[in-house]
């Protein structure tokens, strides 16, 4: 078994409705994302002796995670307050992305894990998501 990982970065705005501190206000982060893949090696062909071609991993993460989330307002569709902000931004042709959960680093890490593993069929073993340079969440099954 081999593990490889690749790091990415994206910017995202959010707020945490109901938070008892400053995170209840609209703000943004430059997230660092580390995608770890655990698998055996390809036995033959162009990808021989690779877990996954780093270029292929980059293309999938770009399409499935970075393009929808980067420079978007990510909001909890179950929050009236967050949905109101999203509606206004949509009227103004600004990028939004709705999810059915509170947009903590923990839930975002699980969301990215599930999207890459179950929709994109990558052999993801863990996701690490840094919300700040000193704070990250790791999610694995
Ligand atoms: Zn935040």
Description:
The protein has one domain (2-70, 104-139): Tetrahydropterin Synthase, Chain A. It has three helices and six strands; from the N terminus they run E-E-H-E-H-E-H-E-E. The protein has helices at residues 54-69, 80-91, 105-119, and strands at residues 2-14, 27-39, 72-76, 96-99, 124-132, 135-139. The longest helix has 16 residues, at 54-69. The model has no long low-confidence stretch (mean pLDDT 97). Bound molecules: zinc ion. The site of zinc ion (ZN) has 5 residues, from strand 2.
Secondary-structure element order, as H and E?
EEHEHEHEE
- End-to-end span in angstroms? 17 Å
Q: Which ligands accompany this protein?
A: zinc ion
| Overall helicity | 25-40%
Number of domains: 1
**Biggest sheet, in brief?**
6 strands, mixed
Runs with pLDDT <50, length 5+?
none
Report the CATH topology name: Tetrahydropterin Synthase, Chain A
Mean pLDDT score: 97
Short characterization:
With 141 residues, the chain is of the alpha/beta class. The protein contains 3 helices and 6 strands; from the N terminus they run ββαβαβαββ.
């Amino acid at each position: 078994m081999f593990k490889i990982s690749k790091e990415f970065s994206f910017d995202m705005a959010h707020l945490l409705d109901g938070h008892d501190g400053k995170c209840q206000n609209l703000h943004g982060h430059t997230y660092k994302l580390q995608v770890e893949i655990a698998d055996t090696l390809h036995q033959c062909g162009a990808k021989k002796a690779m877990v996954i071609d780093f270029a292929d991993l980059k293309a999938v993460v770009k399409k499935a995670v970075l393009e929808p989330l980067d420079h978007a307002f990510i909001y909890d569709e179950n929050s009236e307050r967050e949905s109101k902000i999203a509606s206004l931004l949509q009227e103004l042709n600004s990028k939004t992305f709705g999810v059915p959960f509170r947009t903590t680093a923990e839930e975002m890490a699980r969301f990215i894990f599930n999207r890459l593993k179950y929709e994109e069929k990558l052999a993801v073993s863990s996701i690490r998501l840094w919300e700040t340079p000193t704070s990250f969440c790791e999610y694995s099954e």
